[in-house]
Every structure is written in structure tokens, then in C-alpha cells.
């Protein structure tokens, strides 16, 4: 059964970064996001973090925490679930 | 393909001075020797609040900008130290550098819609305000290259003097923290609620930001008989590795390429190093590694753990503090940092200058820019 949070995060990534040539479902749960795989850079990470903080009411406190959270969609989903209020996360 | 480093011949340094949250060069140097930390937690967006982040502001200066700018009067104490001359006249050029200029005023305009802020908001407007404040002539050049801005000013002043286009040159730099600037670094998550610990092998990197202004007066080495205790900018180098806006090549080659001309000039010298050392992890590790490889016997210090990163002004602020260290005979250690460090070249505690005959000063910037200056007795 697909994870609705992971699906939401993939849509958020494509929308926020305007990845017009990529469909959300083409992003693997475990594909690296930073440096390889999707090859996002620090500016992309900045945009994503701002959007994630607004959308889920979470706070990412350092660049190292950002890098760890953005390691993959699976990592990001775990991070969001651990930090976001329950009513901000799809069941 | 990036070109080779820009590296001019030696130039004489006849005067320096700086202004930080801890005062002028002498006061700042004394405070650093006693491990005093200027950084304090402030709301990142000033009156708009936000997370608490470490900032080092001039005494009684608010993070939120006023009209006229609230940093302008503070510059008087620095201006009083500049040797009197008809600065800005045809043979006495002024090179003004900054990475932020009056962006705090632009942010204040955006917040308040008070048009009075616009009079200081652009690079030209802020520098022209300073020019008029000090009564300088029109021969003022405005330069910016992120956190190596001050080094760029020194280099171009050097080139101007060697071309015979000036008798002396004044390099002036200023960078004052604003909610806009703090907010930007906070958004990158490198300015957070942690205090900087330059070169420390920690899990989380943090920087601080600080107010800074400084000046240097340069003269051609052949201009007049050499006065006692004169210093030379014996070698300078500026290089941009053109890798990425906020990251360096993972092999440290950008750092190394900039340092190579200076390393050649420093052969057979016993030097200590004033590094960039902002408190970030990746760049700090690359910097410490490269410096340890090229200069294995040179102790490395950074003062940004106390003063914060004074951004475009850091090269000249820290040059003035290095000159003060030579005058005093003691070099402040790397405040805010404890072992383990990335490399064992880092000096946490103050040390004597007696065993050394040169200082290497380095700065690094967004965009992959690197700068290095070798300071020696004339």
C-alpha cells in the first residue's frame, strides 16, 4: 500500500522546484535527493525546507539536519512524521 | 575553465584600523586575548522576531535600520584613525568594498514604506553617503565580491599603485548586519541558534554574523624611505573556482589553487595563519586540511567565533587585528572552539609572535571565491 505522505512529498518536490520534466511517481522512495539521484543542490534544499516548514509546521534547525532529512523521500517522510503535528500529516 | 589566480607584486601597508562589536582594533584585540565573545543571541528578523541567532552588533546599534542609517555615526571613530589626506582626489583614490552595502535600508523601506530609507539603500547611495560624511572627493570606486570583497579592494588598490596611477590608496570596507542578511543566512540553516566553533569537529555547523568596518592605506614600496615597523602585503592572491554558489570542490582544489602563489612567496618563512573559519563544517574542514597540507608548521586561528563573520569586511577587519597582533606580540586564539579539531594545526589559545616572521590571511566566499594575503615586515 502506498504511503500518502511519501506521495505528498514527491508532489511537493516537483511543484516547489518546478521539475517540469519529472512526474512525482518517478521519484523512488529511496532515491538520493541531494548530490546524486535527483542531484538537488543547496539552493534547491533551501526552497524545499522553506516549503516543508510552512506546509507541515516543522522546524529544521541546521544545514546538517536539512541534509539528513533530505537524504531521500523515505528519510524525509520519517522526519516529517517525527516532527509535525499529527493533524498536519496524512494518515 | 577558471583562469589562474590574480597575484600582484608586493605593496607597502602604512596604516590600518577596524571597528567591531568589541571596539577599535586595540580594544578588539585585547578582548580577543581574554577570550571575550561579542556574539549574543538576537531575534533573526529584528523587530519581526523569529528564531534566536548569534549576532555581534556595535554597541547601542539596533538590528533594524533607521534613516539615516544607524551605523553611520559609528564610522566616525574609524574615520578619525584614517591618516589625513585629500582622499578621493585624483592621486589619492578610495576603494570602498562591502558585500551588503545598504541592503538593511532597502529591507527597512520594504517593511515601513518610508522613502527616506531609499537614500541609503543601493551600493552607490550608501557609499556616496559615506563619501560625503568624510568629505572625500569623487575618486571613489565601489567593489563587491561577497566575503572576499575587502581582499579585492586591496588587490585593485595594489594594481593601481603599481600602474603609477596613484600616490597612496585608501581601502575602506563596511558591512553591518540587517534582518535581510541575517534572514538569508538563517534560511540556509547555517545561521542557527548554535554559536560558531571554527574548525571544531562537531556534528552541527553554525556561524555568527557581526558588524565590521575597517580601512587600510597602501603605498608603493619605492615611494619614500621605509619607516620603522612598516609592513608589506608581500603577496596577494584571488581565485574563483567557479564550482557552485554555496559549495566548494570536494577535493579542496579551489582553496589550494588560490594559496599556491602565496605559498611560493612564503617559502622559507615561519608563518602563522589567520584563516576564514566561520564555523561551517564542510568548508571549514576543507580549509583546515588544505592549510595543514601546504603549511604544516603554521598555527591556524579564526576570530569569527567571537566577532561573528563580518562578511565582505572580514578580510580588512581581520588584517587590522593581525597588524595589532604583530604590534602587541600576541595572537589571540580560536575563540569558541575546543578539540577535537579537523586538524591539529588549529591554535585554540593565544600565542607569541616571536617565533614567526610572516602572517598568512585567508578568506573564502560564496560563489567559490578564495583570497589570500601574505603579510611580512618591509
Feature tags:
heterodimer; A: 91 residues; mainly alpha; Non-ribosomal Peptide Synthetase Peptidyl Carrier Protein, Chain A; 51% helix; 0% strand; B: 378 residues; alpha/beta; Peroxisomal Thiolase, Chain A, domain 1; eleven-stranded mixed β-sheet; 10 helices
Choose one word for the global shape of chain A. Answer: globular
Biggest beta sheet attributes of chain A: none
The number of domains of chain B is 2
CATH superfamily of chain A: ACP-like
Number of H- or I-type helical stretches of chain A: 4
Question: What is the terminal separation of chain B in angstroms?
Answer: 36 Å
User: Low-confidence parts of chain A lasting 5 or more residues at pLDDT below 50?
Assistant: none
Helix content of chain A: 40-55%
CATH class division of chain A: Mainly Alpha
Along the chain, the helix and strand elements of chain B come as: EEHEEHEHHEHEHEEEHEHEHHEEEE
According to CATH, the fold-level topology of the largest domain in chain B is Peroxisomal Thiolase, Chain A, domain 1
Mean pLDDT of chain A: 92
Query: Which range best describes the helical content of chain B: under 10%, 10-25%, 25-40%, 40-55%, 55-70% or over 70%?
Result: 25-40%
> Which residues of chain B sit in consecutive blocks of at least 5 with pLDDT less than 50?
none
End-to-end separation of chain A: 12 Å
Amino acid at each position: 500500500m502506498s504511503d500518502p505522505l511519501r506521495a505528498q512529498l514527491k508532489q511537493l518536490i516537483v511543484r516547489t522546484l518546478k521539475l517540469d520534466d519529472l512526474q512525482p511517481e518517478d521519484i523512488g522512495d529511496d532515491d538520493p535527493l541531494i548530490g546524486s539521484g535527483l542531484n538537488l543542490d543547496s539552493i534547491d534544499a533551501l526552497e524545499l525546507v522553506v516549503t516543508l516548514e510552512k506546509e507541515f509546521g516543522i522546524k529544521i534547525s541546521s544545514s546538517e539536519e536539512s541534509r539528513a532529512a533530505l537524504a531521500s523521500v523515505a528519510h524525509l517522510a520519517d522526519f516529517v512524521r517525527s516532527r509535525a503535528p499529527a493533524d498536519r500529516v496524512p494518515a | 575553465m577558471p583562469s589562474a589566480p590574480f597575484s600582484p607584486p608586493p605593496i607597502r601597508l602604512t596604516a590600518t584600523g577596524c571597528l567591531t562589536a568589541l571596539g577599535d582594533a586595540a580594544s578588539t584585540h585585547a578582548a580577543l586575548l581574554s577570550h571575550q565573545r561579542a556574539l549574543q543571541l538576537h531575534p533573526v528578523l529584528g523587530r519581526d522576531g523569529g528564531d534566536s541567532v548569534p549576532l555581534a552588533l556595535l554597541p547601542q546599534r539596533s538590528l533594524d535600520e533607521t534613516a539615516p542609517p544607524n551605523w553611520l555615526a559609528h564610522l566616525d571613530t574609524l574615520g578619525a584613525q584614517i591618516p589625513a589626506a585629500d582622499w578621493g582626489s585624483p592621486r589619492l583614490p578610495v576603494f570602498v568594498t562591502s558585500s551588503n552595502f545598504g541592503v538593511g535600508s532597502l529591507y527597512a523601506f520594504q517593511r515601513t514604506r518610508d522613502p527616506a530609507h531609499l537614500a541609503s539603500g543601493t551600493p552607490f547611495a550608501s557609499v556616496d553617503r559615506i563619501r560625503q560624511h568624510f568629505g572625500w572627493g569623487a575618486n571613489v570606486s565601489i567593489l563587491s565580491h561577497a566575503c572576499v570583497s575587502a581582499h579585492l579592494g586591496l588587490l585593485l588598490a595594489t594594481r593601481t599603485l603599481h600602474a603609477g596611477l596613484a600616490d597612496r590608496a585608501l581601502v575602506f570596507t563596511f558591512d553591518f548586519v540587517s534582518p535581510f542578511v541575517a534572514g538569508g543566512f538563517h534560511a540556509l540553516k547555517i545561521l542557527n541558534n548554535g554559536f560558531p566553533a571554527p574548525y571544531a569537529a562537531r556534528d552541527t555547523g553554525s556561524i555568527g554574523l557581526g558588524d565590521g568596518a575597517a580601512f587600510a592605506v597602501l603605498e608603493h614600496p619605492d615611494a619614500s624611505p621605509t619607516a620603522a615597523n612598516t609592513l608589506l602585503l608581500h603577496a596577494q592572491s584571488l581565485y574563483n573556482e567557479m564550482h557552485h554558489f554555496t559549495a566548494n570542490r570536494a577535493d579542496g582544489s579551489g582553496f589550494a589553487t588560490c594559496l599556491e602563489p602565496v605559498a611560493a612567496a612564503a617559502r622559507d618563512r615561519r608563518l602563522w595563519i589567520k584563516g576564514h573559519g566561520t564555523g561551517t563544517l564542510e568548508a571549514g574542514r576543507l580549509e583546515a586540511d588544505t592549510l595543514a597540507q601546504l603549511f604544516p608548521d603554521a598555527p591556524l586561528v579564526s576570530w569569527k567565533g567571537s566577532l561573528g563573520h563580518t562578511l565582505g569586511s572580514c578580510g580588512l577587519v581581520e588584517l587590522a587585528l593581525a597588524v595589532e597582533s604583530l604590534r602587541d606580540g600576541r595572537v589571540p586564539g580560536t575563540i569558541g572552539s575546543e578539540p577535537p579539531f579537523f586538524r591539529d594545526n588549529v591554535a585554540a589559545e593565544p600565542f607569541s609572535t616571536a617565533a614567526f616572521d610572516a602572517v598568512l590571511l585567508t578568506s573564502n566566499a560564496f560563489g567559490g571565491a578564495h583570497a589570500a594575503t601574505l603579510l611580512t615586515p618591509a
